[in-house]
Amino acid sequence: MSFFIAEAMAEPGAAAAQQGNPLTFWGMMIFMVAIFYFMIIRPQSKRNKEHKALMEGLAKGDEVVVSGGMMGKVVKVTEEYVVVEVANNTEISFQKAAITATLPKGTLKSI
C-alpha cells in the first residue's frame, strides 16, 4: 500500500454497471447535431441568401450603408463593384460585398 495514493478497490460487477446504453449515446449525439444545425448553420445560410439578394438587387439611385458605416447613394453598378457618392462630387468605389444594407429613399436628405 502506498502512503499517498489509496489503492482502488473495484467490485466485480462495477464494469458492467458503468456501461451505458448505446442508444442513449447516439440519441445525445443526434440531439447535439440538431441543436448545432438550428442555432448556427441554418441562420447563417439564411443571412447569406439575404445578402446575396441585396447585392443582386442593387441599382443606380439606391441609398446604401457600407460595412464601415459610410452612407451614400449608388451612382454606378458593375458586376463586382459599386460606385457610391458620399458627398457632392465625391465618389468612392466599393466591392459589392461591402454593402451591408439599403436605406429607404430620402434617408440621406434628412441627415
Automatic annotation (TrEMBL):
It comes from the Bacteria. Keywords: Cell membrane, Membrane, Protein transport, Translocation, Transmembrane, Transmembrane helix, Transport. The keyword Magnesium does not apply. The keyword Oxidoreductase does not apply. It is found in: Cell membrane. It is a single-pass membrane protein. GO terms for biological process: protein transport. GO terms for cellular component: plasma membrane. Its main location: membrane. It holds the Pfam family YajC. InterPro entries: Preprotein_translocase_YajC (IPR003849). The chain crosses the membrane at residues 23-41. Coiled coil: none annotated. NCBIfam families: yajC (TIGR00739). PANTHER family: SEC TRANSLOCON ACCESSORY COMPLEX SUBUNIT YAJC. Belongs to the YajC family. This is Sec translocon accessory complex subunit YajC. It comes from Ketobacter alkanivorans.
